[in-house]
Amino acid sequence: TTWTQLQPTTVPPHRWGHAMVFHAARGTIVLHGGTAGNDTWEWNGTDWVAIPTANAPPARTRPGAAYDYLRDRIVLWGGSVGGAAASDTWEFNGTDWSQITTMNAPSGRRASDMAFDPNTGGLLLFSGYQQGADTWLFDNVDWRQLTPATTPPQRYDHTMINDLLRGRVVMFGGNSLGDTWEWDGVDWIQRFPTTSPPARYDDYLVWDDIRQRVVMFGGLQGNP
Predict the structure, then answer these.
(1) N or C, which end of the chain is more exposed by having fewer CB within 10 Å?
(2) Torsion sign (Cα): 116, 11, 93, 83
């Protein structure tokens, strides 16, 4: 019903362009990368804890990241590495990072987003900065491009999250768009809710498991 500012004992360095993903098996939130470097942190509900990993993806901003519910992994893909668009795939098992070598991958990009697809058990990725309106699925081994009958307009800085109750991936907005889309495992379906947030980008979507709702907060409207 209200927001409460927390006062943890330990706080990660200030950053932007990082990835934050809920690690369901551990019940924690994992933070990685951004402008502060390639460090990994975990929020346990009370405090931030630095995770000293033996391996880590190169420092990057605005990657795609999502939790794989079937394999208990956080998968991170792409982003901007040293100003260049990356297309590498990494996994975090709760202790360490490992790079996954794939035969195929989406073209390098930043500001795309990913979400677990309950229908296929893979991780869905859509579009991104200076890229087409393409849809990709990571099946835990390789990437493959999908060819749905309906495709949303190209976008970047959008947000995607899985609705575990209805078995859908929900996508909203991006680069000042205000449309709502759902992925049903086969095709994209545009939704036209009676009430909808104003167009925005760089907002955040999360799945509220207690209330069985997708919740959105913040973002930017219009030009930066």
Answers:
(1) N
(2) positive
